[in-house]
Write a structure and sequence with these properties.
The protein has helices at 2-15, 41-67, 71-95, 99-114, 123-126, 137-143, 162-170, 177-183, 192-209, 211-220, 224-241; strands at residues 151-154, 158-161, 250-251, 254-255. The chain has eleven helices and four strands; from the N terminus they run H-H-H-H-H-H-E-E-H-H-H-H-H-E-E.
Length: 261
Amino acid sequence: MKKILITSLIGLMLTSGANADTDGQNTLSKKNPSKVKDCFESLNRATFSLNQGLDKIIFKPVAKGYRSLPSPVRTGTSNALINISSLITIPNNILQGEFKTAGVNTGRFVLNTTLGIIGIFDVAEKMGFSEYEKEDYGQTLGKWGVGAGCYVVLPVLGPSTIRDTVGSFINVLGGDPYYNASTHGNNEYLSDSVYMTTKVLSGIDFRAKNLESIDNLEKNSMDFYASVRSLYLQDRQQKITNSNPTIEIMYEGDWEEVESQ
């Protein structure tokens, strides 16, 4: 049980987080709002401060070190990690009724795993496959009409919601073939340590790709906590509805916008 909890938390760390593809200059519309309450705001803010401290001491320096690696190494690592994530995306494509997309992503995974050498090279992209979009069980629950529940900030792991936290547990309850093969599989290539390593690498890769954007967001935000909360919630809503990036979240009845200079 302890192993399941630790693994699920690490997995959540890598799938959660604010939308880091931003430079602090966000234009948010007021269409199709989704009401999400911050039921534990005081605790969330305290946890957010803890996470910021850990990020400055540990995660950001490690990400900077990772950025110093040769570009081909970082690109190959990122490609391989994305390829592994297909094993969660494909079943969620099916659960959401996106059978054509599931077929495309299955073809992408097979090509990249074989010809692309476990995904180091994105052969599928060069062959004209459509752009890859990650899916997870939190998104699937949202598609099925399950409400987000309260917004929560988890220690180390960052922003989430009750729904997304529950969705992350599905990974270790049979929903992640890679986890099953690593933990329960009987082979010489995969193990718990290999699984953990790839998950930690995913987090480092994500942080390294977004060093400047996260710094800019913090610098330009009057309330960094509120900015991260709004961006996380709008990012999740966009992924669930497959909408364009102009959705704003209604927070407890009021429009929340990212404060920028």
